[in-house]
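EI: anyone free to look at a 185-residue chain?
SC: sure, send it
EI:
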Amino acid sequence: MAFIRRKLLFIAALLVTGCSSSYTPGEATQRYLSEMQQQRAIEILQQAVWPVDAVAGICGSRGFWYDENSDVNVTADGMDLLSHKRGKVLAKHPQQIGEVVVFEKQYYRYHFDFSSLQAIYLYRDPRLLPVFPGCNRKQSTQRYWIIDLYAAETSNIKLTVTDDRFDELMAALLYLFPELPVALK
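SC: here you go
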């Protein structure tokens, strides 16, 4: 009986975390959207990428590695930022299981192309993103969202945004990408 109960709980958990619904903009988002212009939308997204607030900004990516303090420039076409890849091996540190390898960072300019975006996913609970632990701001007393600009399994950018900035940023994204599906996860 316990086995069946555990299995039912597992299935229920999968249904809850795996399901998504489409996003419907609220009144505040609609108000921002009605006044939005392209340059303002780009400025809002630029501010959301590297804000001063520790609860907001880029919290994860796939397809490239970046340094949190690197410059990023948002345009209508995409985001350009200083990224890095593994270079030569600098050191190896033996551990109990395996070893830690330290690589040299080889920097290059990375362009995240907005034309490759397929969807925008919204996460209210960062624990739904176990592979992006940087998105889980446990120390925060503010409520926040994770916005996933999804291009592919191997290419996306995740942004953290606090509740007080969410509607304005969503209006900017809806203005810039009106054809993209937006789903709540």
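EI: The CA atoms of residues 55 and 141 lie 9 Å apart.
SC: 👍
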